[in-house]
Amino acid sequence: MMKAEPRTILRFLLEYFEIINELYEIQSKDSVITFEALNEIITKHKTDIKQQLIDYKILNSVNDNFEIRTVYYNLIEFILSEFKPMLPETIEKYHVSIAELFRKIKDNINGDKIILNQRLTDLAGEIRAFYEMVEKNTISLLNETRELKANVKKIDYREKIVRASRWIDEYIIPLNKILDINHSASIANKLYDISEFSNKHRLVCDDENTRVLFEKLYFQMIQVNDNLLRQSKILTTELLPLIERIRTESIILTGWITFLKNPYKQKVPKIFEGKRTNIYSKNTFFNASELFEQFKNDTAVYFEEEINTDEKWIFDKEFFTEKLKSNLPVTDFFKWCNKTLKEEYKKVEIEKFFALTTLAFDEDIQRDFGKKPEFDKIKINDLTLTVPKITITKYGIS
Amino acid sequence: MEFPNHHRQIVEDLMSGKFILPQERTYPVLKDNEQSYTYFFKASFNYDLKITQDFVYLVSDESNETLSRDICIFIAILSYEIDREGKNFMELIQFSEFEIDEIENYFTNSSYIDLILSNKQLKDTDSRKNFINTLNRRNIIEKTSDNRFMFTSAHKFFMDFAVDIVKFENAEQN
């Protein structure tokens, strides 16, 4: 029986919180509060509250030592947000209780309503307890990891590697398995089944009280599933990369410190000896002989200068304009060009032909292209030109 | 006989001891022709070609051991000093730009000063400047200006070595 009013106990907790907090810290560290430790704290604070601590059932005696009762321990832990990470095995126990309650609810859905309702209430309680434990664990793992990262306690690099590896292998990965909805044996998967089941029965159940309980359970499940997803995300996107980084970082630094202890006695990684052809290299002789071999050509090569016997032809525009004028009217200009060149030089050359055709562009010439365009073919050496039929009727005002 | 694109540059870079990095145009050529290039370097020079996701490099029996050791000492001291300042050395080496003055500061105030003074390539400011230029030529760092540089992904080659030291030690202890 409690030897005090609830308010008295709460006031006592408030008044002596400093002492209770110190006791909590001792128990967190050593799992137990020794008789000597309790006396030491009481003497330090000059307040003997040992009897009240026992009367109010805050402390429990274990042989000659003491421990804070679980309910108070959990309260202080919750108030201080100072959770210790729990091994996922501890959380796994909820898998059994939740699965068992759910199985019984499913099997006896049409059975005794009072028992069914009690089971639904218990299931909701177990799920709440499970979720709170997961949340506490994520918070504590994050705190521990951040502390390890900041390395306030100046932990040695090797110890850091050990701790980081332990968090990953023993806590984070197994916890993530519990929360992995894609894993058929995970609790998260079971919770998903419960959510579906409660959603169906909150609508079809004939008993009103049971319907209300299913409704409550369904909405609790929506919230729990959302929260678990968030916890799982924290684990995979924040915690795991952070702790992996601490581990890699610590390994590399440990390696470097070991190396720096005696850098000249360690084998170092092989890096390539750069290869360059220097003038003093062993290959110089061969490279030089290869180069000179190119000039060892015994056959004399002569270049004959090309002598151009033809005099350079210059187009005499005036002469040909006069010739054109005297032949006016010319019915087919291009044929006239061909014929004129043949008369003058006996042989038509393409260069001369094109030079002569420029007369057609003379501004003073009056050209007639006929009503319908007509084309002729003119052969100059190997080249056949397709040209339009142009009639030159007049030159200037003549 | 046809060679892949940039063949000449690939051979020249690797033969001068450079690390070829993923952002270089020669990297995908090497990656796509991994088998033929491995065979080419083995058959022509008896060198081993190593292609990783962070860099490509050549390995021969004639290793430049002094340079390799000095690079390890340089990165080891830098990592240690950055960590001692409470900063994250891996993040800084991987993503940050360093100023030569900053490096000078780490080296002149290092507790490994005896080791630094006894090392030809790291003993004083001028030697360290030359050394940084060597690292630049090898593509281990990239100079962003006259007095600033960043480490390239080739630094992981040396970080892997530090990990190997611990692994080797642990294996020996077991």
Write the layout of secondary structure elements.
The complex is a heterodimer of chains A (398) and B (174).
Chain A: H1 6-15, H2 17-30, H3 35-45, H4 50-55, E1 59-62, E2 65-68, H5 70-80, H6 88-107, H7 113-150, H8 157-179, H9 187-204, H10 208-261, H11 284-293, H12 317-327, H13 333-345, H14 350-357, E3 365-368, E4 375-380, E5 383-388, E6 391-395
Antiparallel strand pairs in A: 1-2, 3-6, 4-5
Chain B: H1 7-15, H2 26-32, H3 34-45, E1 48-51, E2 56-59, H4 65-84, H5 89-95, E3 97-99, H6 100-108, H7 113-117, H8 125-137, E4 141-145, E5 148-151, H9 156-173
Antiparallel strand pairs in B: 1-2, 3-5, 4-5
Helix pairs in contact in B: 4-5
Account of the protein in words:
The complex is a heterodimer of chains A (398) and B (174). Chain A has helices at residues 6-15, 17-30, 35-45, 50-55, 70-80, 88-107, 113-150, 157-179, 187-204, 208-261, 284-293, 317-327, 333-345, 350-357, and strands at residues 59-62, 65-68, 365-368, 375-380, 383-388, 391-395. Chain A is mainly alpha-helical and 398 residues long. Chain A folds into 3 domains: 1-82; 83-264; 317-395. In chain A, strand 1 and strand 2 (65-68) form a beta hairpin. Chain B has 2 domains: 7-59, no CATH class; 65-173, Arc Repressor Mutant, subunit A. Chain B is built from 9 helices and 5 strands. Chain B has helices at 7-15, 26-32, 34-45, 65-84, 89-95, 100-108, 113-117, 125-137, 156-173, and strands at residues 48-51, 56-59, 97-99, 141-145, 148-151. Chain B has a 3-stranded antiparallel β-sheet. A two-stranded antiparallel ribbon of chain B has the order 1-2. In chain B, helix 4 packs across helix 5. The longest helix of chain B is centred in the middle third of the chain and has 20 residues, at 65-84. The chains are: A mainly alpha (398), B mainly alpha (174). At the A-B interface, helix 10 of A face strand 2, helix 4 and helix 9 of B.
